[in-house]
Write a structure and sequence with these properties.
The protein has one helix and ten strands; from the N terminus they run E-E-E-H-E-E-E-E-E-E-E. By secondary structure, it is mainly β. The strands form two sheets. The chain has a five-stranded mixed β-barrel. A five-stranded antiparallel β-sheet has the order 6-10-9-7-8, with no helix packed on it. 4% of the residues lie in helices and 37% in strands.
Length: 144
């Protein structure tokens, strides 16, 4: 029988693989990698998800997640509680600047600009136009 040795275990660096949840996207639209998603119910033994927007994010108190990969409509995919996203344009924000859930119609998106509703979902970790990075951790921020 296989075994796991403690020395083989490593902490997560950019994605918490061990905390992944298999969920069903039955929202009617594809979910892109690193989209913010919320649990919209359950179907059989799977959590059902939909892309979040700032208005729904403000009401879902901490239960927002990040899509680990693209999830086509009516398919299952993995969602995680946080992700360190690299190689994005963060030039408009300094390190430590807040990241917000984007307003509709940018469902699933996040932005350096606070929209109509304020739900912080992360922070800028490196400010650069091409090699910037952000920590998206929507469950850490529990609303305004």
């Amino acid at each position: 029988m296989p075994s796991i040795k403690a020395k083989w275990l490593r902490p997560a660096t950019d994605l918490p693989f061990a905390e992944g949840i298999l969920a069903l996207n039955n929202s009617g639209a594809d979910v892109a990698v690193n989209d913010l998603v919320l649990v919209s119910g359950a179907q059989a033994n799977a959590l059902a998800i939909t892309r979040s927007d700032a208005a729904s994010a403000i009401r879902t108190f901490p239960a927002l997640f990040v899509a680990k990969h693209g999830i086509p409509n009516n398919r299952r995919g993995v969602i995680v509680p946080w992700a360190h996203v690299t190689n994005v344009d963060t030039a408009a924000g300094a390190v430590g600047a807040p990241i917000y859930a984007a307003d509709a119609p940018n469902n699933g998106g996040w932005s350096l600009t606070q929209g109509t509703f304020s739900r912080q979902v992360g922070v800028v970790t490196a400010s650069n136009a091409t090699t910037g990075s952000v920590l998206i951790a929507p469950q850490v921020y529990d609303g305004p």
